[in-house]
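Cross-check.
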Amino acid sequence: MKPLMWIMILGLSFRDVYSDYCPQRTTCSSTCYRSSKYHRDCGLFGWRRCTKYRRRSFTCYVTCYQQACCTGYTGSSCNTPLCDGSTSCPNGGTCRSPDYCVCPTGFSPPLCNDIDECSGTSHGCQHDCRNTAGSYDCTCRAGYVRSYDLKTCIVDCGHPGDINNGRVSVSSTLSGGPATYTCNTDYSMTSGDRVRYCQNDFTWSGTEPTCIFSNHCNSSPCRNGATCVNFVGGFRCTCSQWWSGQICETDIQPPVLTGCSEDVHINATDHTVQYSWTEPTFTDPRGSDLNIVSNYPSSEFTFPWGDYTVQYVATKTSNGLQTECSFQIKVRPTPCEELNVPVNGARLCNGWKTDYGRFCMIMCQQNYTIGPSQSYYTWHVCGASGNWIAASPVPDCEVPVTYEYEDEYYHPEYAGYVYSSSCEDDATRNTLQTLYIDYLKGTDGFSSFCSTYESECMKENVDVKC
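Predicted model, tokenized:
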């Protein structure tokens, strides 16, 4: 075999990188000939065989050689290298010589196979590494996201969730990131935290806030001139005068009264007196009907001595509220002038119900007496006429009495009308008061004053003046 042929064969075996034309062995078809013998009968009656020869043709295959590009090259000039049978390399590589590619980052020559960066520890991923074509990605376990360097993993709390009647602005869902809540117009925050932060335990700090409607007054719920005041979750109506209810819907205006008479005190010189007054006026600003009643059928009446209450009541039919006018009429006997206190003696009078009458008597200090023409039995009474009966003034105890003339001035029955000690002495005063009550109850015509006012007819109420 020629030396050149050996070089070519070795080049094919070792994929030499020489570019040029190289002989290429191939199988060729050709027509071949050969002779074959055959037999036929010869002689009389074919009693022997004769051998004959003839030439026959057939297709045969032989090895041929032709000029072609050397292994590893192609192209019209056979100078374009082939890498794995192609003019281009996978994964963006460039074929520079037979079966050798210049590869981009992440792929290894000679055929630009992908480099598994995750097989070592140089990738720098904090959690997990995922190989990709020509590169790699760092991935984080559930609940974490990649940081800005795409390698380290930080906590991700996720969106904290929306709230009713409000909104949340999330600057970052990562650890330390804030979420700020605001309530919608007309709503106020009543609980929870306005700002919450993502924590390392994957939760948001604090509690979710609640937004409650707080502008009820915007719809003007209060009626009848009331003032509306908002508060969280409700409102309050400050009602104007004479309105009530949650929204000031209830009329609490009672009837309006004018011209109600004052209490009157009448002194009567007789046992009765006729008196007239002006009836009061009732009105209602709302125009409701009024029902007016009185305990006196007319505004004039004849009153005996005593205390009387005149009453008018107006009832508003729309709400049942009432307004009352009442005043007192006091009818008393005409009072008398103050009765004098006797010299050297004491004046004892009733100290109760004095406006209905005065019942007075006198007593003298021992060694003094009244004149012979006077009597201790005499009651001095102030009646309806305004005059004392008997006539005033009372007599003084101006007659001194010595022992030898005692019978001359004292009747034995007068002994009870004389006191020995000072009138200012408590024991003496108590004795005088007791004597007065006994004499008043024992005197015909006057005893009824005690029975009528029994609870007040007692010695403590006797007026003693000395």
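The chain is about 10% helix and 40% strand. Residues 40 and 50 are 5 Å apart (CA to CA). Passed to J.P. for a second look.
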